[in-house]
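Hey, resending since the last one bounced:
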Amino acid sequence: MPEIKLFSGTESRYLADKIADYYGYPLSNVEVKKFSDGEMQPIIHDSVRGTYSFFIQSTFAPSENLMELLLMIDSAKRASAGYITAVVPYFGYARQDRKDKPRVPISAKLMANLLQAAGADRVMTMDLHADQIQGFFDIPVDHLQSEILFVDHLKKMDLSNTIFASPDVGGVKRARTYAQYFEKPLVICDKERVRANEVKKITVIGEVKGADVIMVDDLADTAGTLCRAADALIEKGARTVQAIITHPVLSGNAFENIENSALAKMYVTDTIPLKRKSKKIEVLSCAKLFARAIRNAHEYKSIAALFVQK
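The structure tokens again:
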């Protein structure tokens, strides 16, 4: 079996360290030098010839994180790495997965092209904004799901009065996964947008009176939709509202929006580091899940065992 090498990008080192600890193998040495104008030059100090090399880097803002990942992959490819996997816990630009108006890019497809052009042989990620993005790649994609993290956490809670909800129509499939697993009702919040990151109106479809509602979504950016949906659920008679969010993008006034909303609690993963702490936000680490997935990929074992089984 080829030797394994684990590498981390600069901004995902906090997560890569935990993944390496769970895996039981140290991170290999990569140095990222910068020219005075900001250009990057990653230098891999360990031999990667013939190895299985895993590069861990979420591609959240700024775009330098993506560029650094591409350059590290190119470095390994030119150093004769045997097999290169881009481990991208949060896959940036995934929200732009189709042309919904004239003269706009399909950015998720471009990101797939860039990773392949750089030399990635495989991509490992979690909770893509849309499942069909896997089809943008012509290389294998291990699409991990955060459900296994959140389900284990929810099992410790009293769910006797729980209803699951989707904060928008597009997230119904995610919310239904939890509703079916725990055999609970599902409600939908139908949103009407004015423009990106600005919601005009939210209509709750379903009965929530007296219930403890848990909303499910893949990411929260400004958290505007999430907070408006929480307020709408409380107005409709819900007793409490919590949220499960995989990727805490949390830009702009997100923290203020969350802290001033009807949301009692929000559970997130650490695919993206929190910009600051909040009493309403609890982080569940995805490091162990990625460590297991990396081990299974390296040892030619199935990834299916890492998904929620009922």
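The CA atoms of residues 70 and 118 lie 6 Å apart.

Sorry for the duplicate.
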